[in-house]
Structure formats: C-alpha cells, structure tokens
Amino acid sequence: MRTDSTGIKSKSADASAMQLEIKPETPSNKSEKVVLAGNPNVGKSLVFNYLSGTYVDVSNFPGTTVSVSEGKYKNHTILDTPGVYGVSSFNEEETVTRDILLEADVILNVVNALHLERDLFLTLQLIDLGKPVSVILNFYDEVKKKKIKIDTDALSKLLGVKVFTTSAITKTGFENLDAAIAQAVVSDKIKTDPSKINLEAIQQHGRAIAQLVAEGDDNLARKYQLPYGTPDERELIYLDRRQKVNEIVNEVEYQDDMSGKFFNRLGRWTLNPLTGIPILGLVLVMLYYAIGDFAAQRLVGYTEGVLGKGIFEFYTKSFVGNFTPVEITVNTLDANEEVVKTNIYDFKESISVDPVQKDKFFGDAQGSNKDITFEFKNPVMKLLFGEFGIFSMTITYLIFLLLPLVVCFYFVMAFLEDSGYLPRLATMMDRSLSAIGLNGKAIIPILLGFGCVTMATITTRILGSSREKSIATAILQFVIPCSAQLAVIAALTAKAGPGAVLVYGGVIFAMMITISTILNRFLPGESTPLLIDLPPMRIPRLENILKKMVFRTWGFLKEAGVWFFIGALFVAVLDITGMLVFFQNLLQPVTTGWLKLPGEASTAFVMGVVRRDFGGAGLYDLALAPMQVAVALIVITLFVPCIASFMVMINERGWKEGLLIWFGAWIIAFLVGGLTAQIVI
Amino acid sequence: MTENITLDKVKKGTSIKIIRIPQGDSRIQLLRMGIIEGDKIICLERLPGGTVVIQKNRQEIAVGHSLAKQIMILPE
Ligand SMILES: Nc1nc2c(ncn2[C@@H]2O[C@H](COP(=O)(O)OP(=O)(O)O)[C@@H](O)[C@H]2O)c(=O)[nH]1
Predict the structure, then answer these.
(1) A153-184 as b/e, with b when 16 or more CB fall inside 10 Å?
(2) Residue A570 above 80 pLDDT?
C-alpha cells in the first residue's frame, strides 16, 4: 500500500498545491506525478524522453533560469529535474529539484551504476523523504563491459526499494520502466531518529519536509517556521548516510577493472598542461571559426545583407511605397564599395501612380552592387518602415543578424557542455580566474557573455558567493562584447588589420585585469574554491545539443526581443523628432575632439544606450582609419550595457550596484577610449 | 611523527589517504560526492597554480587551490 511512512499526508496552505492532495488509492492506473531525479549526467533525460515521447513541455521553473521538462506517460505526469548531488538549498538547481520532489507521488531515481558510491548518497536521501521510490540502475552496458558485478537483489534489499537495470542509450531494460513506476514503494529501511528529526514537524508537514529541515535546509525551515538543523546536526546525518552508502557499495559491488579507454585518456590529456594547453588552443580556434568566422561573418553576412536588407527590407519598403510618398536613392557601387553612380527617384505621391519611374527604379535596383535607401515622408511610415523602423531595422537585426549568431553560439556551448569539456575548461582556467577573485566555474558565464551578456548575467547565479557574482557581473557588463557586438568587431577589425586588433585587444584585456583586480582587492568577503565533478569525455548526442540550443535561443528571444522593439521605437522617435541629431550634436565635440572620430560616430554611441549592438552596427558605414576603428570599438565595448542586460543586472545585483556599473561604464568608456585616441591616433 | 602534508603539495600520480577536510560548505559537497576522511584517493593531476584533480574509484573531481591547501593528507 502506498502511504506516507508516517501515515500522514503533507498539508500545504498553497491553493494550487491543494489540488494535488487528492491521492489515488489504486496507484497503477491513476494519474500520478512521477518525478525523475538523479545526479548530473546519469541518463535522466534519455529516460525522460522515452517515457514522455514527443509531448514535452520545456519551461523555465518560475522565477529561475533552471529549465524543467514536463511530459505525459500513460496517464501520469512525468517531470524531469535538474541533476543534483543532494537535495537542499545550496543553489538554484537544488531548490528547484527539492520543490518538485516535495510534490512528487512517485520518485524514479536514475543512478549511474558506475558511480554507485557517489550516486547512492542522493538515493538514500530520496528514500529518507518517505515517498515511494524506484531505483533505475543505468549505464548497465558499461558495467558489463568493465566486468563489474553488481548484486542488484542485495542492493534492492539493502535500500528497501525495487532496483531496475537499464542502459539508456540502447533503451535496454526500458520495458521495465512501467513496472518501476507501478512498484515504487516507501522503503522499509528508513529509521526516524527522534534525536535528529522533529517528530512534531513530521506530523504537521510530512516526513519529506521534516527530513530536509533536520538536514539544515534553512530556506525550507523559514517557509514553514521550523527550527532547522545546525551544521553539526546536518553533518551527523550526512556522515551517517555516507557510511551507509560505503557499506552498501562494499556489499553489492565486486571487481573493479579500470580499463583506460580513449575518452578516459582524452579527459586526462585535457588537464595535463603539456597537452591541455594545445587542446585549449584547438578549442579556441574551433570557437573562433565557428562563431567569429562562420557565424559572425559568413552566415550573418548572408542572412543580414542578402536576406534581411536585400530581400526582406527592400520588398517591404517598396511595397509600402505604393501607398505613401517616398524618395529612393539608388547608389551603384564598384568592386571597392565606392559609389560610382547615384540615381534619385522621387515618388511625390506613391510608387504605383508613376509606372514609368517605377520601371526605371526597379530596373536600376537590380544587381548585388547596389545600396538603396528609402526616405519616407510620412512620419508614421518612417517610424514603422524607415531607417530605424520597427518593421524594417528591428526585424532585420533581430531575425537576420542576432538570431543566427545566437543559435550558432548556443550550439557550440551545448556541444562543449555535453562533451564533458566545459568542467575541464573550468579546471584549466581555475588558476587564472582565482587571481581575480573568481574560480574556474566563472568561465561559464564569461563564455556565455560572448553570446549574450544578458543571459550571462543571469548565469552568474551559479557562482558561490555574492562577491564572485559582483566581480563576474562587472566583467560581463564592462569588457565582454556580446555576440551582436562581436559581429561588428569581427567585421571591422578584419578590415582594419592586425594593428587595430592589437590595440583593441590590449586595452580591453588591460581593463578587464584592472577592473577585476580592483574589485577583488576592495570587495569584502571571500571567494569560494573550485570543487566540481569531472564527467567522462564523450561524443555528445546531437538531440540533446539541439534541445538545449532551441530552449536557450527561445529564452533569449523571449527575454531580449521586447527590449529590442522598445529600443527601436525609442530611436525612431528620437529620429523623427530631431532629438537624435540633438544628442549626436551634443556628443559630437567629444567624439571629434577627444576621441578623434568622425562626428557621425556619435550616432553609434547614442544608439548604444538603447542596445549595445545598435551602437556597434552604426559604425559599419563610416570610413574609419584602422586606429579609429580600434578606438571606436573600445568605446562601444566598454560602453553602457544594453537595456535588457541593464534590467537583468538591476534584478540580480540591486539598484545600487546596477547604477554604479551603468554610470561607471559611461565614464570609463569615454575616458579610456579618449586616452587611447590621444596616444594612437 | 605525523607528516602534515596538504593536498596541494601532492605529486601527480601518487596514492594518498585523506586525514582532514575543513568544515564548511565544501566539506558537505565533498561528502555528497563521496569523499570523506579516511578515503584512499589518487592525485590524477596537479595543474600549475595548484588546482588538483583527484580520483576515487571511477570518479574524478577538481579541487581549487585554496581548498586543496586546507585538506590534510598522508601519502600511502
Ligand atoms: N554507455 C551508456 N551511456 C549512457 C547511458 N545513459 C546515458 N548515457 C550517456 O550519458 C550522457 C548523459 O545522458 P543524459 O540523458 O543527458 O543525462 P542527464 O544529464 O542525467 O539528463 C549522454 O551522453 C548519454 O549518451 C547508458 O546507459 N549507457
């Protein structure tokens, strides 16, 4: 029979949770909440995909960046949880996993059979929650291959729950998953030690909550206003559990053949400095070709130039021109992009009422060497379809420039993550990053920052202390160019040559060192040491990578898209009302005198306030000398973060820190840009 | 005589026994991952700068220098 071991159901004041309280009496064919739980990389998502088939709903857990997949199996709801080593409130993944587990009717604990010693710790904790559990002993193919013997019957007896062996990549044993759900039981091996667990809490809130609170989950304790375990009490429970795991493993597992496979060796090579540094170099070169060269230049050159401007904007604008007065300038360019001929077509009423001029215009507009601008007379048309129009520029940038970049970026990131290289990269970078008050883990938000600073700022949550979060956020907001900017930087520096790259890279790197060293010196508190599990290296599964890529890209569009339109609207209004010129004129003396750049560059900076990448893109069309390129890029890189990342930063780090960074960016960008200009130009 | 050696001083490839892990969150994390006082482990790699990679059975864990400095060990 399936009841709480204490016979008491947990109660919750939360109205939405109340509906879940209707518990089925005959479990096998009633709808239940089945929750998959396990350490990271145990094959949980493969089990989940199998059970849920195609109807999967991946969503952000409310208020977090952690994604949770939900699906249906028969009449059960299947929930996947983020991989964790234990359930408590150490980090976001854990709290999310904990909250889902508290609502579970059945827990399927997926275990990597190769890592019993590590994984069974969580298993015992899950069992201690007093919910029905079944253990899925995955990676069984590897167990056989390595000639490891696991006595699953003994394991099942010792744990007090059923154990099912599977090998998720070949779906072997998956036919038993149904039984695993149906036969999940509350273990009879749980002992409640009244000296450790508050019996009253069990009666009031159920075993699961009482257990977690006894283990020192302060977050949960505050929620239910319970006294929680001291660190010492938690340690006692943990030591107890650890000891039990070791005993179980000793009893059920025999013979350990450590055969060194290629991927094992590869994993070692990535960490040995002798081989690891060349491998790191190789990965960086690969990253450069995938993102800097392929995505930022070739792909975006095509999608933005040909699809976006050449087809999408041209046809939208010339269609709209059928209904409203427009003046069109067609520039014919030669091989060096110099204008050799300019024709102006002035449609006083609209394109359609003047067929003769229309034919001439369309004939002239043919060919790839044309630069065509539409000047709408009607302010509303200008707002919607003009140079900065919501339906012209914004769509081009968002869909044809940013999207391909972001997609490529997330693909590469997911590849690194799933191959097992990312934690090794974190290990390699640990030393350098600890010099600036971070640990190796910070490489993850920093790498992500090259994709989107907004997303990366959210990811700083994975860091251990508030101090580290502050340092990482500052680095991201000041010196890391996001992918939209990278496109501009790559394109401009490609033209400007190695000298500009050297000056730009040198100054930005020096700024990164300066800013982070100062913060590391003066921020109170301590940074946390690196401590991460290194999963084996392997060839990642394409399906997993694509899933992550789609999920993250969607998250990005959802978060950043709206700011993009608001930003464009803002610029378009400024443009129509003449404010754009006003601000540009205001900044012009600084731009020409102090930064030694053409006056039009101030447009790029003004737009940079709205979005960093608008700022960068504005520089494309200016004729800049190599060193001017370097200065302009220094300014836009250090400059004010885009609206989206600014909002996220305020959200994560608070108003004070957010505004400090914002104003700091203004000052530092112009100060450092100007100083550089005075020296190199 | 007790040899007070810390994990960050260990040579690559040596077998060691863990004598003391400092209190705190890192201790709890190590406990969960399966590392506890008395465990026999191997130092797989010692990176320049002091980050250490240890191995217990089939599991590999990277430990930052500032933590490794506080973990007392005995060479086996
Ligand atoms: N050899 C083997 N590999 C597996 C097995 N189950 C999962 N994997 C691999 O382990 C990796 C992690 O699997 P995934 O489902 O992403 O794990 P999750 O992080 O727990 O969701 C993938 O590369 C899988 O191909 C298994 O039973 N045998």
Answers:
(1) eebbebbebbbbbbbbeeeebbebbeebbebb
(2) no
